[in-house]
Specification:
Elements lengths: L3 E5 L3 H12 L6 E5 L3 H10 L4 E3 L2 H5 L3 E4 L3 H11 L8 E4 L6 H5 L7 E4 L10 E7 L5 H11 L3 E5 L9
Parallel strand pairs: 1-2, 1-4, 2-3, 4-5, 5-6, 7-8
Antiparallel strand pairs: 6-7
């Protein structure tokens, strides 16, 4: 599955995902990561030298799949910052709890939105990762997204209201 991905946030969960994808032999055309902490970004690049580090969130937001790996208090601000850079055909996957798809769609000009509550065992491709899709998300994009995320472990669709219960 060749696609481009971007991570906004290069902390723990990004490291978990990159290792899981790498161990599952998933190849991407390009992986762009924006991490504002230089030391964290440098450490991530040392472990995964094939990623590109960006100096702002905008290059990561322009990829085919965009992972929002930021904490809930800064998620809405991050969406405001990237809303003009996200392509209408991109899929945006929030890894943050609490911020709903409806809140996200109120800022982003797309419907290809996903929420996921990832599990740390994705690091060894044994994650238990519930996802919820925006009701108007393209079905083909949903299938492509699930196919990719299942490389990290058991990934299944659930109602958004049940995400945090997992």
């Amino acid at each position: 599955m060749k696609t481009t991905i971007g991570f906004i946030g290069g902390g723990r969960i990004t490291r978990i995902f990159l290792k899981g994808f790498n161990d599952a032999k998933v190849q991407f055309e390009k992986v762009v990561v924006f991490e504002p902490n230089a030391e964290t970004g440098k450490s991530l690049h040392e472990q995964f030298p094939w990623i590109e580090l960006a100096d702002s969130a905008l290059p990561a937001a322009k990829q085919g799949m965009v992972f929002l790996a930021v904490h809930p208090p800064v998620l809405m601000e991050t969406l405001q910052n990237i809303k003009d850079s996200v392509d209408k055909n991109s899929v945006v996957i929030s890894l943050a709890p609490k911020i709903t798809l409806e809140k996200m769609v109120s800022v982003l000009p797309i419907k290809n939105l996903v929420r996921m509550i990832p599990n740390a065992t994705s690091y060894i491709n044994e994650g238990y990762n519930p996802v919820a899709f925006h009701a108007e998300m393209d079905l083909e994009k949903q299938h492509k997204c699930l196919k990719l995320l299942k490389k990290l472990g058991k990934t299944f669709e659930t109602e958004e209201s049940k995400l945090e219960g997992y």
